[in-house]
Design a protein that fits this description.
Strand order of the largest sheet: 3-2-1-4-5
Helix content: 40-55%
Order of helices and strands: EEEHEHEHEEEHHHHEHEH
Structural class: alpha/beta
Number of domains: 2
Number of strands: 10
CATH class of the largest domain: Alpha Beta
Radius of gyration: 20 Å
Largest sheet: 5 strands, mixed
Strand content: 15-25%
CATH superfamily of the largest domain: ATPase, nucleotide binding domain
Shape: globular
């Protein structure tokens, strides 16, 4: 008899609920918040209010899609943190009340660990190959850029991370400089496919396995400033090449440290996770390691790259088997690592 778990994700601006039978996804519903586009970024207060409006319809749809009655559930997993505290409070509070009402266990999940464990999600109609422990996971999003050494499901160590901006932030801020809409990362990716990386920008010299993207962003800004002095239409005339050049610069920085980590730890299992793992250029670079270095590489499906409850559910299933449950006194946290 499978273990049915309801999972709730509300760490930022997406309200998501999923129902799993063991590690198999039965439903994964995500409600996006469009209101933030007018502000060029997520507004925490608006996000928490939208979560309050979305959470009941999203959970109801997740149960209906999975064809599961709530009385069949054996646990409720939820994102405890890190994330926006107001948003997390909505998901945490609902999860507590729902679990209490059904008299079933509550499972708290670290958002960053869940991104890594998204690789273990199985679809009903397809058995996917999963990473073998230990493996390295490059976790890249708008808020985090980390190289994670994964020894076991919840035995993870950050061996490299950004000392300033995240890679996703570099994508979005570069897009904003170019006058592209928010979130800018997908627009950079789209335009880059039609361009060539003919421009070069300063790359950081950071020791060890850590990253830095603030200098690259500054170099990009100054480059455009100087070019616009000569030609006010420079951005418009070179948009695709600028996007391709910036994207290549970011990916080169990411891949350089990832390769160093793989050699240092002598690991041939390489994965990527997080919102930026949807970037086509980064996916191609990771797939290239399979041929150039004969690594085993793992890329999540697009629906599991951004924040979603499916990754919370699969992490919750592992904790369920371990009997690792949370109490009603559990409070969310806004900051924290893996």
């Amino acid at each position: 008899m499978p273990v049915y778990i309801l999972a709730i994700e509300s760490s930022c601006d997406d309200t998501s609920a999923a129902v799993f039978a063991d590690t198999t996804m039965l439903s994964n519903i995500v409600a996006n918040q469009q209101v933030h586009k007018d502000f060029g970024g997520v507004v925490p207060e608006l996000a928490s209010r939208a979560h309050q409006q979305n959470i009941i319809p999203v959970i109801s749809k997740a149960l209906d899609t999975a064809k599961i009655d709530k009385k069949m559930l054996q646990a409720v997993a939820f994102t405890r943190g890190p994330g926006l505290l107001g948003s997390l409070l909505v998901g945490t509070s609902f999860a507590k009340a729902f679990a209490l009402g059904l008299n079933i266990p509550l499972i708290e999940i670290n958002h960053l660990q869940a991104h890594v464990l998204a690789h273990f999600i199985q679809d009903k109609d397809e058995q996917r190959v999963v990473p073998q422990f230990p493996f390295l996971c490059l976790t890249v999003s708008g808020g985090h850029t980390q190289i994670v050494l994964v020894r076991d499901y919840f035995d993870m160590e950050i061996v490299g991370q950004t000392i300033d901006d995240a890679a996703g932030e570099a994508f979005d801020k570069s897009a904003k400089i170019l006058g592209l809409p928010y979130p800018g990362g997908p627009y950079i990716d789209k335009n880059a496919k039609a361009g060539k990386p003919v421009f070069t920008f300063a790359k950081p010299l950071v020791p060890g396995l850590n990253y830095s993207f603030s200098g690259l962003k500054t170099s990009f800004l100054y480059f455009l400033r100087d070019q616009l002095k000569e030609n006010q239409l420079f951005i418009e005339e070179n948009m695709n090449d600028l996007c391709a050049s910036m994207q290549k610069s970011i990916i080169d920085i990411l891949m350089d440290k990832l390769l160093k980590a793989a050699k240092h730890y002598n690991i041939r299992e390489i994965a990527i996770a997080g919102g930026v793992s949807a970037n086509s250029g980064l996916r191609e670079a990771i797939l290239g390691l399979k041929e150039s270095h004969h690594y085993n590489v793992y890329i999540p499906q697009f629906q599991y790259t951004t924040d979603n409850a499916a990754m919370i559910a699969v992490a919750g299933y592992v904790k369920y088997l371990q009997g690792n449950f949370a109490g009603q006194e559990m409070a969310p946290y806004s900051r924290g690592g893996i």
